[in-house]
Amino acid sequence: MAAAAEPLRPGFYSETCPPAEFIVRDVMRKAMIREPRSVASVMRFQFHDCFVNGCDGSLLLDDTPNMLGEKLSLSNIDSLRSFEVVDEIKEALEKACPGTVSCADIVIMAARDAVALTGGPHWVVRLGRKDSLTASQEDSDNIMPSPRANASFLIDLFSQFNLSVKDLVALSGSHSVGEARCFSIMFRLYNQSGSGKPDPAFDPCYREKLDKICPIGGDENVTGDLDATPRIFDNQYFKDLVAGKGFLNSDQTLYTFPQTREYVKVFSEDQDEFFNAFVEGMLKMGDLQSGRPGEIRTNCRVVNSRPVDV
């Protein structure tokens, strides 16, 4: 990762598109009213975009005959959703300020608003990103973690982006809102580590609840709540981990692993501490840049110029 060609800064569009941040917030609010789950989905775009060659909107590109994009990568297919919300934001911004606001910046603003609209903190975002001219399914497959990942793997992954153990645990708190598919936890419920048994970290009552939601032979696209308050951004997620009620393996492992356990306990007891750490982590992640050439797309799904082979 490299520094952006032009430094990111707050208020980047204050002169070229003054209503930009208001427009993003307004579309996000309407999307949440229409489908509450959508804002949690949009928030995750920042993670899946920024970790793969920086925050450049590459995640949003559709496949072309010459390019396999990131939407169908292992961590994104049948998982990421609500791309239409970004399309709606872009359409509104193009009407107000044509060719001005990048799709990469839309992802950053929309993620911030998803948190704030569900009861979490609001923060000033740094803007000024350009949109990628290409995307890479292979890069996404090689970088993005599986729901089966353990804390040790996640610590190593985050360290590659100069994100600390504290950043990892705080940013995992994005799972304070939203849902995930049964597909992601079948092994935890019935065959953890090839044992033929459930993950012993499960609270027994919680496991019984999940057994009913995600039975063997059932529809693995059925979803379960990531924490006990899936529409509210709060520290309940961490309280659930302490109680053995983490939905994903990559969540519960944060409490069973010594290096991450203390941060889980702190955030479970102090919501303000979690909020502050989350904002710090989101800002650091939002600064990840590839240094590659870019543009301002007029449609977030396609590059303005001829698609670039990868």
TrEMBL record:
Disulfide bonds join C17-C97, C50-C55, C103-C300, C182-C214. Ca(2+) 2 binds at D227, T229, D234. Heme b binds at H175. The keyword Iron-sulfur does not apply. The keyword Ion transport does not apply. Ca(2+) 1 binds at D49, V52, G54, D56, S58, E70. Its EC number is 1.11.1.7. Substrate binds at P145. The active site is at H48 (proton acceptor). Pfam families: peroxidase. GO terms for cellular component: extracellular region; plant-type cell wall. Its main location: secreted. The record marks R44 as: Transition state stabilizer. GO terms for biological process: hydrogen peroxide catabolic process; lignin biosynthetic process; response to oxidative stress; vegetative to reproductive phase transition of meristem. Binds 2 calcium ions per subunit. Its cofactor is Ca(2+); heme b. Keywords: Calcium, Disulfide bond, Heme, Hydrogen peroxide, Iron, Metal-binding, Oxidoreductase, Peroxidase, Secreted. Residues 7-304 form the Plant heme peroxidase family profile domain. It comes from the Eukaryota. GO terms for molecular function: heme binding; lactoperoxidase activity; metal ion binding. Gene3D superfamilies: 1.10.520.10, Peroxidase, domain 2. It catalyses: 2 a phenolic donor + H2O2 = 2 a phenolic radical donor + 2 H2O. It is found in: Secreted. Belongs to the peroxidase family. Ascorbate peroxidase subfamily. Removal of H(2)O(2), oxidation of toxic reductants, biosynthesis and degradation of lignin, suberization, auxin catabolism, response to environmental stresses such as wounding, pathogen attack and oxidative stress. These functions might be dependent on each isozyme/isoform in each plant tissue. This is Peroxidase. It comes from Corchorus capsularis (Jute).
